[in-house]
C-alpha cells in the first residue's frame, strides 16, 4: 500500500536455526507537492521576472526544462519571456520518480496605453477659468479597450471604447495649472502626459505719454508743436500693441514702444483739430486694456513738408528782392555815371568864363584842356567886350 510496508523474511536451517528479517518498503506513487510564490499575477509588466517557490524535500525542480537549484526545499530563478502570451512550465521530480508538472499561462505586457492630447497645447495661456482636455487613448493590438483606464488629475474619466476619444472640462485656478493625463492597462502599465496651462484674467499693464506738444495759453490745452506727436510708453512684455488700429512693435526686453502719429489740419472754418488716440494692449491670454489720449492741432502749425516749402519760397522771395535791389542799384549807378559824363561833356563844351580887368578890358582865357582822346578841344571864341554905356541924368552919372 501507499506508504511504508514491512516485509517479514523468515529463514530456518536444517538444525532449526532461524532468523527473521523485516524489510521496510516505501511505496510512493504520489507526485511531489509544489507551492509557487512568484509570479503572483498572470499579467506581467516586465519581460524578465522571478520564479520562486517550495517543493517536497529531495525533489528536483525544472523551470521550462531548465533545472533549478533547490535548497532545503526552496528554489528561485529568473525567466525571460517575450511580449505577449507565455506558458511557464514547472516540473518537480521526487526520489521515487514521481513527477509533478504545472503549466502557468502568463501574459507579458510591458507597453502602456498610448495617450495623445490635442488640446490644450503645452504652455497655453487663457483668460477663461475652464478648459477642455481633448485627446485619445489607445491600447496595444488585441487589447480590450474596455479594461483600459483614464485619469485626469487623478480622477477617473470615461472615454469612447470604440475610438478611444475623450473630452473633459477642467477647472483652472489663477496662475499656472498642471493638468496630468494618465492611462493604465490591466497589467498596471501607465503613461503620463502633463500640460501646463496658465490662467491670466488680469489686463496687461499700459502707460502712454504724448510728446512733441506744448501747453497753449489760449486753448488751455496741450497742442502739437508741429504736425505730428510722439506716442510712447510701456506695456507688458509680449503683449500686442495697436495705436489707432496700427500694430506697433514692443521691445521684447523692456516693453517700451514709440510711434509717430500725424495730426490732421483743422477743418475749414475751424481753428483747432482734436484727435483721439486709441492705444490698445492685448496680452497672450486675450486680456486687453485701452487708453484714449487726445492731441490738438491749431491753425498755423504746418507740416514738415510745408515748412520746407515755405522756407524755399522765402528764399526765392529773398533772392528776388536782392536781385531787384541790385538791378535798382545798377540802374541808379548807371544813370548817375551817365549824368556825370553829360555834365563833364557840357562843361568841356561850354565857352570859358570871361574876366575883366578893373579898367574894363577882357583877359584872355587859359589854353584849352585836352579833350578825351588826347587832342585839345577847340574853345568857342570869347565874346567881345561890350562898350560901356553912359547915361547922363540930371542927378548923377550912371
Question: Any overview of this molecule?
Answer:
- With 398 residues, the chain is mostly beta strands.
- The protein has 3 domains: 1-110, Immunoglobulin-like; 114-199, Immunoglobulins (Immunoglobulin-like); 206-304, Immunoglobulin-like (Sandwich), CATH 2.60.40.
- The chain contains 1 helix and 30 strands.
- It has one helix spanning 304-349; strands spanning 3-12, 18-27, 34-38, 43-44, 48-55, 60-63, 66-68, 70-71, 74-80, 84-93, 99-108, 114-119, 124-126, 130-138, 149-152, 155-157, 165-171, 175-184, 190-199, 206-211, 213-216, 221-224, 228-235, 240-243, 246-248, 256-262, 272-282, 288-298, 355-356, 362-363.
- It has a 5-stranded mixed sheet with strand order 4-11-10-6-7, with no helix packed on it.
- A hairpin with a 2-residue loop joins strand 24 and strand 25 (246-248).
- The protein is rod-shaped, with a radius of gyration of 65 Å.
- The protein starts with a strand and ends in a 35-residue tail after the last strand.
- Residues 302-309 and 388-398 have low confidence and may be disordered.
Amino acid at each position: 500500500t501507499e506508504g511504508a510496508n514491512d516485509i517479514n523474511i523468515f529463514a530456518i536451517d536444517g538444525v532449526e536455526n532461524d532468523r527473521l528479517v523485516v524489510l521496510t518498503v516505501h511505496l510512493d506513487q504520489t507526485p511531489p507537492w509544489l507551492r509557487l510564490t512568484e509570479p503572483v499575477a498572470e499579467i506581467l509588466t516586465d519581460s524578465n521576472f522571478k520564479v520562486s517557490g517550495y517543493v517536497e524535500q529531495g525533489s528536483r525542480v525544472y523551470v521550462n526544462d531548465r533545472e533549478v537549484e533547490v535548497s532545503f526545499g526552496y528554489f528561485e530563478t529568473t525567466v525571460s519571456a517575450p511580449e505577449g502570451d507565455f506558458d511557464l512550465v514547472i516540473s518537480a521530480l521526487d526520489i521515487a520518480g514521481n513527477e509533478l508538472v504545472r503549466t502557468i499561462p502568463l501574459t507579458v505586457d510591458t507597453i502602456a496605453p498610448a495617450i495623445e492630447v490635442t488640446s490644450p497645447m503645452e504652455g497655453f495661456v487663457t483668460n477663461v477659468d475652464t478648459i477642455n482636455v481633448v485627446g485619445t487613448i489607445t491600447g496595444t493590438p488585441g487589447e480590450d479597450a474596455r479594461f483600459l483606464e483614464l485619469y485626469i488629475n487623478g480622477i477617473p474619466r470615461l472615454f469612447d471604447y470604440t475610438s478611444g476619444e475623450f473630452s473633459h472640462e477642467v477647472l483652472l485656478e489663477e496662475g499656472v495649472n498642471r493638468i496630468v493625463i494618465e492611462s493604465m492597462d490591466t497589467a498596471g502599465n501607465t503613461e503620463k502626459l502633463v500640460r501646463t496651462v496658465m490662467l491670466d484674467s488680469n489686463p496687461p499693464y499700459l502707460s502712454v505719454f504724448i510728446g512733441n506738444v506744448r501747453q497753449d495759453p489760449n486753448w488751455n490745452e496741450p497742442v502739437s508743436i508741429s504736425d505730428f506727436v510722439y506716442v510712447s510708453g510701456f506695456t507688458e512684455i509680449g503683449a500686442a500693441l495697436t495705436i489707432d488700429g496700427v500694430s506697433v512693435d514692443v521691445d521684447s526686453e523692456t516693453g517700451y514702444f514709440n510711434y509717430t502719429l500725424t495730426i490732421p489740419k483743422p477743418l475749414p472754418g475751424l481753428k483747432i483739430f482734436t484727435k483721439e488716440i486709441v492705444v490698445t494692449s492685448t496680452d497672450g491670454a486675450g486680456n486687453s486694456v485701452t487708453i484714449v489720449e487726445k492731441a490738438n492741432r491749431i491753425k498755423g502749425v504746418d507740416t514738415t513738408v510745408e515748412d520746407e516749402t515755405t522756407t524755399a519760397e522765402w528764399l526765392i522771395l529773398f533772392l528776388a528782392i536782392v536781385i531787384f535791389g541790385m538791378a535798382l542799384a545798377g540802374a541808379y549807378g548807371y544813370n548817375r555815371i551817365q549824368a556825370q559824363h553829360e555834365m563833364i561833356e557840357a562843361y568841356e563844351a561850354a565857352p570859358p568864363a570871361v574876366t575883366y580887368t578893373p579898367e574894363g578890358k577882357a583877359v584872355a582865357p587859359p589854353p584849352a584842356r585836352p579833350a578825351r582822346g588826347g587832342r585839345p578841344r577847340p574853345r568857342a571864341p570869347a565874346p567881345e567886350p561890350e562898350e560901356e554905356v553912359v547915361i547922363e541924368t540930371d542927378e548923377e552919372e550912371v
